[in-house]
Amino acid sequence: MDLRNIAIIAHVDHGKTTLVDELLKQSGTYRENQATTERAMDSNDLERERGITILAKATSVEWKGIRINIVDTPGHADFGGEVERILSMVDGVVLLVDAAEGPMPQTKFVTSKALALGLRPIVVLNKVDKPDAEPDRALDECFDLFANLGADDDQLDFPVLYASGRNGWADTELDGPRENLDALFDLVVKHVPAPKQIADRDKPFRMLATTLGADPFIGRILTGRVESGTLKAGQTVQALSRDGEKIEQFRATKILAFRGLSQQPIDLAEAGDIVTIAGMAKATVADTICDTSVTEAIPAQPIDPPTITVTFGINDSPLAGRDGKKVQSRVIRERLMKEAETNVAIKVTDTPGGEAFEVAGRGELQMGVLIENMRREGFELSISRPQVLFQDIDGVQHEPIEEVTIDVDDDYSGVVIEKLTSTRKGDLAEMKPAGAGKTRIIAYVPSRGLIGYHGEFLTDTRGTGVMNRVFHEWAPFKGPIPGRRAGVLISMESGVSVAYALWKLEDRGKFFIGAQEQVYQGMILGEHSRENDLEINPLKGKQLTNVRASGTDEAVRLTTPITLSLEQAIAYIDNDELVEVTPSAIRMRKRFLDPHERKRASRAAG
Asked: Crossing angle for the helix pair 16-26 and 182-191, nearest 10 degrees?
């Protein structure tokens, strides 16, 4: 069967997964009576809850006798490790752009990778039926984006479609019939070349592994595109490292191919197709699976280095072990090593003593998703504040700089620019009206300055601002950046919080806990209204006497406490604080629970 391999690129919430739903429906992938789910490609619970694509996944549809393999790529730069690997499997990309918002930072990140590989894009302007859509402006911005990213003449001569993924139509003209997605199917078949590997079917079998997974029935599995030759189920093959060294020889016990949303066993994998192989014990991502006669490995796409590191440790608070089942450092280490094996953007190293582990990755969101998955699996952890990784380039210390794109109401643009440039050492690159009373601000800000900024940003913009960030470059160290200004309220007792005590302490700051919650000495209960830390007693009840006059008791009405999400808590804590994560709770505490230890540590730190 004739083949086409494409990837769909889009920013978060631009409608990529919804469009794939419609492609599956209109290609006849589903039976007439088959039960279907919305956003079928978002198979992970966290993906469905957050509305983002975390893991790259493939599916395939048939159109007029041609099989189209479609790869759904993550829309957030923190999961860019998936993107870089997955683009090496395809021959064309569909760039999906919201007709109102235009191309956004994550679009730029993935598109730059695709253009560098020489892929010719198809631009689909989605949501053109929305009242605030400006397809002409979005199209001009796409052209400017390609030009800035160094696209060649063939890539700049891209075809355009106007679409509504939710309503299931795409047309070559803005005022087209708006009936179905036939125009998109036909354009993919016409514009995307067939895999050039098809011509190499007579050569020895070779395949570059791009994603690693595990199946409960068949074990370790590797997915990739067959670069040359054919592979029969049961055939003996070998795995070569990037340097061409032999890792292992094994029998391909099973070959699976994407057919619709499921993977089905096939007897023969042919050059150009995207398949999954089982049977290996050691082979991993970026290794070459090949015939035993092959001696050279396929060049693997280099992967951008991690930019932040977080320390994962055991939960050693007084409430440890009450909630989760997996609390030992050995179990935590096994889980982190398993994650590092399947996710090449994550690096795990042991710390001296072996009780904690340094986990390096792309960003706070990637770390937050890993921690959230672990707590759902029953782990208890203590997490440190994210630290930025530095690089030594030509003897000069360099730090990661991120491109920040912000859409904010005109009234709040001044305070946002002030915070980014003067306080957080950023450089303003562009500022322009975005329509509807909003301003678009583009700035280059050190990653250090953005840790913990998102909550402050939402406060400054009254919750109306939208911020997107993506790695830009390494730049010389920009000097010290002030951290959190406010101190915290620390519990000086252990027990159950009392409403009366919290009510009397409300003028001291904002609380993260309510009444009748378990607290312990050293636990962070709230944010102090001043810059210093303050120890408080949340257990102190009202002194009772045997004299009581009717009507003189005051009613206790507590202000609703602030509930921090996992990412917000990790970004909020300071260097001498930790986040305690259990399956049912997220707490913050001082690194040293005993007040005398805290004083000694602060004196030692200067």
From this structure: 100
**In whole angstroms, what separates CA 108 from the centre of its chain?**
15
Topology (CATH) of 198-290: Elongation Factor Tu (Ef-tu); domain 3 (2.40.30)
Hey, how many other C-beta atoms are within 10 angstroms of the C-beta on 35?
A: 6
Q: Where in the chain is the domain with CATH 3.40.50.300?
A: 2-192
Provide the whole-model pTM. Answer: 0.75
Of the candidates 563, 519, 509, 562, the residue with the CA atom closest to the CA atom of residue 539: 519
Bridge partners (DSSP) listed for residue 428? 443
| CA angle, residues 256, 260, 261, in degrees to nearest 5 | 80
The helix/strand/coil state of 187 is: helix
> Between 364-376 and 329-342, two packed helices, what is the crossing angle to 10 degrees?
130
Q: b/e map of 436-450 (b: 16 or more CB within 10 Å)?
A: eebbbbebbbbbbbb
Radius of gyration in angstroms for the set of CA atoms belonging to the chain, rounded to a whole number: 27
Angle (CA) 85-149-95 rounded to 5° is: 60
Given this structure, which CATH class describes domain 391-476? alpha beta
DSSP secondary structure code for residue 411 in this structure? G
Q: Give the DSSP H or E segment for 140.
A: helix 135-148
Convert the pLDDT of each residue in 133-179 to its tens digit.
889 999 998 998 898 888 888 899 999 999 988 888 899 998 888 88
Binding-site members for GTP are 13-18, 126-129
